[in-house]
Specification:
The chain is an alpha/beta fold. Helix content is 26%, strand content 25%. It contains 5 helices and 12 strands. Strand 2 and strand 3 form a beta hairpin. The radius of gyration is 15 Å and the shape is globular. The two termini are 29 Å apart.
């Protein structure tokens, strides 16, 4: 097993052991909504959380309430594309049961992209799920980036590769890390 896969599994186990994930999720959402990057964004790219990820539904709903455009990614043969959703009715189960948009791809700008990850360091580098879709997207993306993470996902040292692109901010239930 390679080092990244070992870290994914170790952090997954730590998240599974968290006692108050609902409280941590609420704190993370609260912390995000106070950020200037969030407040100023008109169009927000947000993943639909699954499994042991920080719940993104409250952020999606807050974005709708604030009049923001919500753009959800979809993995295609061309890479990562973003699609506007205006309700949860614009989603259907896709690969591995993960909800994905049924709407047309949007070519407009994403002001703030909430980048998923499994493991992070304090410099903003992340280990994702292993497909490299976000690193390829981020290579040509010029907007703001942030990631949501439980504090147990932030480590001092993780393997970094030449193609890895760090996020600008990591928001956890305990702290805000400007990378």
């Amino acid at each position: 097993m390679d080092a990244k896969q070992a870290l994914r599994r170790a952090v997954h186990a730590r998240i599974a052991e968290l006692a108050n994930r609902d409280e941590a999720d609420a704190a993370i959402v609260h912390n995000v909504m106070r950020l200037p990057e969030w407040i100023e964004a008109k169009a927000v790219g947000l993943t639909l959380s699954f499994g042991l990820e920080v719940d993104t539904r409250p952020l999606i709903e807050a974005a709708w309430q604030a009049g923001k455009t919500v753009l959800v990614p979809k993995v295609t043969t061309e890479g990562l594309t973003f699609h506007r959703i205006e309700s949860y009715d614009d989603l259907e189960p896709g690969v591995m049961g993960i909800l994905e948009p049924t709407t047309q791809q949007v070519d407009g700008d994403v002001d703030l992209c909430v980048v998923p990850g499994r493991v992070f360091n304090r410099s903003g580098y992340r280990i994702g799920w292993g497909g490299g879709y976000y690193d390829r997207f981020l290579a040509s993306y010029a907007g703001q980036t942030l990631s949501l993470a439980y504090s147990v996902q932030v480590l001092d040292d993780i393997p970094i590769e030449a193609h890895d692109i760090p996020v600008g901010v990591i928001v956890s239930e305990r702290e805000l890390i400007r990378c």
